[in-house]
Automatic annotation (TrEMBL):
Entry GO MF terms: acetylpyruvate hydrolase activity; acylpyruvate hydrolase activity; metal ion binding; oxaloacetate decarboxylase activity; oxaloacetate tautomerase activity
InterPro entries membership: Fumarylacetoacetase-like_C (IPR011234), Fumarylacetoacetase_C_sf (IPR036663)
SUPFAM superfamilies with a match to the protein in the record: FAH
Organism: Acipenser ruthenus (Sterlet sturgeon)
Lineage: Eukaryota, Metazoa, Chordata, Craniata, Vertebrata
Domain spans labelled Fumarylacetoacetase-like C-terminal: 16-216
EC number(s) recorded for this UniProt protein: 3.7.1.5, 4.1.1.112, 5.3.2.2
Name of the protein in question: Oxaloacetate tautomerase FAHD1, mitochondrial
Length: 220
């Protein structure tokens, strides 16, 4: 049944944020990770969302917060075990997203064999752009995404570099986790991730489609 709620503000729905890691070979290599043969998945809570006008907060326990610019896929029609050939029928649109990562904490979690929750799921760890209706991106498998810090280009990649395509990811994820209307899938980041500091300004975009700006702050 179609919902009466407005997907233009999908971040207010309180639905799942499912993240794909190491989906770009050049990023897997820059962090000295093996290029995966199966998607690497983790989750963020809906309290991670932040939209333009609000700041990204550095967690008090981190001294190395990284940006990761990613294409986000907004689910319009839920499903379980969605076949790849029907996957795009379940997409309502897209959003440009940042998977903010406390890299020092993530490295420690990796060493200790602990989950990445503290590194990836803190408040404001998922800045998002406005909702982009599906029709505005003809081929989500071939768009350029980029990110600048204080005017300096740090990340630039094309979704054509992704190891696992959007239809494959929707099908793979929905075998394990039922997808619901309003869910968001972050599809992984290209190379160039780097540290941000308090007062930095992050500007990111999908070429020709959208851009967004966020400031970094530290809680007092
Ligand atoms: C190593 C990571 O943090 C994986 C990740 O999130 C990615 O986008 O790749
Ligand atoms: Mg990421």
């Amino acid at each position: 049944m179609a919902s009466s709620r407005n997907l233009n503000r999908f971040w207010e729905w309180g639905r799942k944020i499912i993240c794909v890691g190491r989906n770009y070979p050049d990023h897997a290599k820059e962090l000295k990770n093996a290029v995966p043969t199966e998607p690497v998945l983790f989750l963020k809570p809906s309290s991670a969302y932040v939209t333009e006008g609000s700041s990204i907060m550095v967690p008090s326990y981190s001294h190395n917060l990284h940006h990761e610019v990613e294409l986000g896929v907004v689910i319009g029609k839920g499903g379980t075990a969605i076949p790849q050939n029907a996957a795009m029928d379940h997409v309502a649109g897209y959003a440009l997203c940042l998977d903010m990562t406390a890299r020092d904490v993530q490295d420690e979690c990796k060493t200790k064999g602990l989950p990445w929750t503290l590194a990836k799921a803190f408040n404001t760890s998922c800045p998002v752009s406005e909702f982009i209706p599906k029709e505005k991106i003809a081929d989500p498998g071939n768009v350029k995404i980029w990110l600048k810090v204080n005017g300096q280009l740090r990340q630039e990649g094309n979704t054509s570099q992704m190891i696992f395509s959007i239809p494959f990811l929707i099908s793979y994820i929905s075998e394990i986790i039922t997808l619901e209307e309003g869910d968001l899938i972050l599809t992984g980041t290209p190379k160039g991730v780097s540290s941000v500091q308090e007062h930095d300004e992050l500007l990111a975009g999908i070429e020709g489609i959208v851009s967004m700006k966020f400031r970094v702050d530290r809680p007092q």
